[in-house]
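Incident log entry.

Two folding requests arrived from the same account within the same minute. Monitoring flagged them as a possible duplicate submission, but the sequences differ. Recording both here for audit purposes.

Request one:
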Amino acid sequence: MSDTEPQAEQAPSTRPHTGRRRNEAAHRAILDAALKLLAESDDTPVTIDAIARAAGVGKQTVYRWWPSKGAVLLDALTDRADQDVSGPDTGALRTDLRAFIAATFDAVQHGTTASALRTLTREAARDPHLAELMQSFIGTRRTALRDLLSRGRERGELAGDADLDLIVDQVYGVFWYRFLLGHGPLDGTVAERLADSLARGSAAV
C-alpha cells in the first residue's frame, strides 16, 4: 500500500452515556434534599431555592421536573412511602394486612419521615395547592391498601359485600389520629391487633 494512500478511518471510541446517570443522580439528590429540609424546617416554609442549594443543582433543574415547591415535597414523600410501604401479596389477606399496616406505622417512627409529614400537614392547612397535592398523596396510599383488600375479597377471604373503603378508613383513621394527636402508640402490636380485627370482622361467612 502506498504511503500516500489514505488509511481507513477508525471507528470513534464509544464513550459511556453519562447524561442519564447524571439526571438520575440529580433527581435523587433533589428528592433527598427536599425530605431533609422538610424534616429540619421547624415550621419554616421550604423554598425551591433552598432545595436546589441543598441538592447542589440549579433552580431550573428543579423546575425541569416539578412545576412547584409543593410538587417536589409531595413527590419526595411519595417516593419515601413507596420505599417503606409496599403492597405485599403473600396469598393470605391477614398476613398481607398485618405487613402493610405494620410498615405504615413503622415508617413514621423514623424522625425524617415523621417530621416531614407533620410539616407538610401544617403547610397544607394554609396552602390550597399543597392541600390538593396532599390529597393526591393520601389517595395513592389508600389505593394501595384497597388493592390489597380487593385481592383478599377475590380469594373469598372477605365477604362479597365487604365495604373496602370503610376498612381503609379504619386503618388510616387509627394512623392519623394517633400520629397527629399522640393518642396511643403506632407499633407492631397495634398493627397486628388492628389487622386481625378488620380481617375477622369482614371475613366471608
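Request two (distinct sequence, not a duplicate):
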Amino acid sequence: MAQGCLKCLKYTMCFANFLCFLCGVAVLSFGIYMMVDFRMAALTPTLARFNLANMLLVSGIVITCVSFLGFLGALKENRCLLLTFFLLLFLLMLVELTVACLLLMYESEIGKMVDEDLKKGLEKAKGETSNTTDVMSEWDLLQVQLDCCGVHNASDWGENVPPSCKNKSSQIREKGCLIKLKNMFEDNFLTTGISVIVLCIIEVLGMCFAMTLFCHISRSGLGYKL
C-alpha cells in the first residue's frame, strides 16, 4: 500500500513538473519574441530599463530549471534533487510574496512614475528625432487599442494631434491613456491577485509532495544518498 502511494506521488510529481516545464518553455519563447519585436522604450523610457523581455527570459529559464529538477528528482528518486527543488520553490514563493507586497505598498509611487514616464515618451514622440516614426507607431497602437489620446487628454499633443487620437466618427478621444491604463489594471487586479494565490498554493503543494517523497525515500532506504 505504502509502495503504491509512493509510486502515485512520484508520477504525479513527474507529470506536474513536466507541465511546468512546458509553461517555462512558453514563457522563454515569449520573452525571445518580445526581445525581437517589442519596443517598450517608445512609451516608457524609464520602465524600459527593467527590460520586460529580459525578465521573461530569466523567469522562463528559472521555471524550466526548477521544474526539470523536480521531474528528474521524482523520476530518479534522488533525495538531493528533491531537497534542492524544495528549497528553490520556497525561495521563489518568498520572492513572489515580497514583490506583491512591494507593489501594494508603493502603488501610488508606481502610478506617479508611470505618469512621468508616459510624458517623457510622448515628448519624445513629439520631438524631431531619428526614431520618431518608431515612437509614433507605438503611441498610435496604444491610443487605438485603449481608445485614448495623450497622457491625460488630447491637449498633451498640442496643435499636432495624431490621426490615431480620432475614433471612427473622426472625433478626438476624450480620455487619456493614463486613466485607461489605471482602469485596466484595476479591472484585472482581482484576477491577478487570484493568480498569485493559486500560484503560491501550487508551489506549497509542490513543496509538500517533494518533502513527502523525500521522507518516504529516506525511510525506505531507496534513492541516492545526499
